[in-house]
Amino acid sequence: MTANKSVALSSDHTALELRQAIAKHIAALGWKVVDIGPTTTESTHYPKHGAAAARLVASGDCNFGIIICGTGQGIMMAANKVAGIRCGVCSDAFSARMTRQHNDANMLSLGARVIGEGLALDIVDAFLTAKFEGGRHATRVDMIEPSES
Ligand code: RB5
Question: What is the CATH number for 88?
Fold first, then answer.
């Protein structure tokens, strides 16, 4: 049951079509979708879109975030700079499931130039249906802290 559960969605210009397909897919599954754009394919900058979605998740406004750029890499890096965000790039459903089960990932990053729509939707399904296992994994997740200072 996904009642009251929401997903923040954003991308850069490489992923408008894929983002729209994901929005339609997860809305049909009962998720509330908070799609923060962009709404055109005009060239834009992935860091601001990754950070904007991450802030919605970090604030608790959304339960999860799904972000997309060409490779999934740059937008993931931007999202992970926001405190409380654990975002993994996934190109397969196993990794997407495991990053929820073991890492309690709250955001998923995809590469629109890496995977096709069918695989992307499988990955999204794996991510949104998997549950964090807690226990020893919670101990390890709690150990993930900023270490740049
Ligand atoms: C845009 O050309 C591309 O650099 C961006 O979408 C992303 O792949 C960066 O990580």
Answer: 3.40.1400.10
